[in-house]
Design brief:
Bound molecules: nicotinamide-adenine-dinucleotide
Strand order of the largest sheet: 3-2-1-4-5-6-7-8
Number of helices: 18
CATH class of the largest domain: Alpha Beta
Largest sheet: 8 strands, mixed
CATH architecture of the largest domain: 3-Layer(aba) Sandwich
Number of domains: 2
Distance between the termini: 53 Å
Strand content: 5-15%
Shape: globular
Oligomer: single chain
Helix content: 40-55%
CATH topology of the largest domain: Rossmann fold
Number of strands: 14
Amino acid sequence: MKLSVFGCGYLGAVHAAAMASLGHDVVGIDPVAEKIAKLSAGETPFFEPGLPEILSQSLASGRLRFTTDPAEAADADVHFIGVGTPQRRDGAGADMTYVNQAVADLIPHLKPGALVVGKSTVPVGTAARLAELVNAAGARLAWNPEFLREGFAVKDTIEPDRLVYGVADASKEQDTTILDEVYSRAIAAGTPRIVTDYATAELVKVAANSFLATKISFINAMAEIAEVTGADVTQLADAIGHDARIGRRFLNAGVGFGGGCLPKDIRAFTARAEELGKGESVAFLKQVDEINLRRRQRLVDLVVDSFDGRVFGRHVAVLGLAFKPDSDDIRDSPALDVAVRLKGLGAEVVSHDPEAIENARRLHPQLTYADSVDAALEGAEAVVVVTEWKQYRELDAVVTAAKVARPVVFDGRNVLDPATWRGAGWTYTGMGR
Ligand SMILES: NC(=O)c1ccc[n+]([C@@H]2O[C@H](COP(=O)([O-])OP(=O)(O)OC[C@H]3O[C@@H](n4cnc5c(N)ncnc54)[C@H](O)[C@@H]3O)[C@@H](O)[C@H]2O)c1
């Protein structure tokens, strides 16, 4: 099939390359010329495991190209909208500028009967509004929310755990058939697919992210209670997680969630619910957000306390900058936030991350970055693990102790074994344990 993908960021670049790797003919469109030049040269503008391989294969096959010119989408029968929906600068709601612009850019080039497929995470009601514009141009609109996880984006795009199609009633069968053809490999593999209306499709995405955020903040709330009672939240999570109705996944207490999705999605959902006069229905999401943000400060406080309140001039090694491992994404990253807060208190922060240093440096040139873990650890008076990269999880407690000036470790992700680290002479502090 001939496809276009508007937006070549974390979602769009992966979607474009993955669809081409499945045999479709794809053009990726993005106004950022530098990004398009990189992608066209087979270079990924961000770190995502597996993306370089499918990108270069798809470019070589001739089935994938990138451009800044929306007119080059004219040939396609199906157009995906995967542009950003960040938090507005002046409030909690989603900034719809990019989605609106992408649709406006596309409309003059739509073939009659083309299908526009929204993938961006949007406030409920967006698809109905955009459908009027798209229909007026003789085309149709579907909403097909994206559930990929950064770090697993290629696999999640090619083998999604479910597909959700929000389609117009009048063209339900026709649009379902087209989307089934786009995703024919996943459909053949028996991937569950839910065909529904626009509003449900839009809500599925924000509901899923709200649930995940709530699960994380729930266990972090338990961590706060554990901290004042001497309980261990990781054992608590193991114990409640054995109940299949609860489940152990996403119950890891720590410094909380971040990234370009969960924080802004729960805020946008709260704002949208308020607009709809149903603010009370999701009022708990404000607490979910607050609990989450409190954990960052808690970790900072623990570090400061370890210096008897005087962190000025003390050498703190911060391991991690990305909001999660296997990503270079620093959007709303708890790790970067902790580093910046400690630096703001006067600590000599030296940060390391296997992939995110370049992005972090652009945003926070005032921080000191080490290009190896050893360089960050050298002379450290406190080590703070804030992103659970494999190489940090696997640090050897004995070997690491020999590199630092003061063996004091803060396990912001509860990924180190306290007994092992204490056994090697460390003062170990986890989150809620
Ligand atoms: N990143 C994820 O893990 C993820 C997962 C699921 C859903 N989403 C959703 O997908 C959407 C995109 O997220 P992202 O992380 O890829 O954002 P991103 O910021 O990485 O990418 C957005 C891209 O859109 C481009 N863009 C802006 N205006 C455009 C226009 N008029 N035409 C074409 N391109 C345009 C930008 O230049 C940028 O490259 C958001 O709604 C997000 O919530 C993201």
